[in-house]
Amino acid sequence: MANKAEILTGLRRTHSRDLDVLVNSAVVLSDSNIVTGTLNDKTAPVEISSSAVFTSTNSGSLTEADHSGRTLMLSAMGGTASIIIPVASQAGVTYNIVSANVTDNGKNLTFRAPTANGLTFTGGVLDLDEDEAGAGQVSVVYPGGDDDKLALTGPHNFNLTFTATSTTNYLVSGWAVADDDSAFGDLP
Asked: If residue 138 lies in a helix (H) or strand (E), which one and from where to where?
């Protein structure tokens, strides 16, 4: 029977990257219930409204290497914005984009393919129209067969996940609270 040190040595030979990630992601819960430790850079949330994602035109592209598999926070938009979701290298590539804008800045946000017909969206989004009353306030919006953009009108709060089901399609899921109905559509 191998001892703990021998098992660890064997695992390091076959799973060194996995062990490094595990060790680097370990946290310590002290008696005061304060969590300390190193946060794994790949799982740390990324603030994208103040990063290179947004250019001076208030739009930009996500990249699979820097943004997939992470929580992407969009806390502020200086104006109407567009975020380009890249063509995935494989199924399973995921982008989770969240926002909690409380103020009503009247700016719109579009998630879109890099080019017209560059990819398609499937799935659906639970849509809460904050300016609507009654039954029309809550709905689920679905994309058409070849839609390649999702537009949020005056978004306040959302949690959207784009999961590649292939290299040409993303399953869109989540919810959005906005001034008007969210809408899928086609790029010109």
From this structure: strand 138-141
Q: Identify which of 64, 187, 183 has the alpha carbon closest to the alpha carbon of residue 117.
A: 187
Coil, helix or strand for 129? strand
Residues paired with 155 in a beta bridge:
178
6 neighbors 13 (Cβ within 8 angstroms)? no
**Which amino acid, 21?**
V
Backbone angles phi, psi at 169, to 5 degrees: -145, 140
CB 12 within 8 A of CB 5: no
Strand, coil or helix: 77: coil
Distance in angstroms (rounded) separating the CA atoms of residues 176 and 135? 16
How is residue 105 written in tokens? 């800045």
Query: Which secondary structure element, helix H or strand E, spans residue 123, and what is its range?
Result: strand 120-123
DSSP 135: G
Q: What does the pLDDT look like over 8-48, one tens digit per residue?
A: 666 665 555 555 545 444 444 444 555 455 544 555 666 67
The phi, psi pair for 83, rounded to 5°, reads -115, 125
Q: Position 43: which residue type?
A: T
User: pLDDT tens digits for 96-148?
Assistant: 999 877 666 678 899 999 999 999 999 999 999 887 777 778 889 999 988 99
Separation CA 33–CA 49 (nearest Å): 32
> Which residue bears the tokens 């060194």?
16
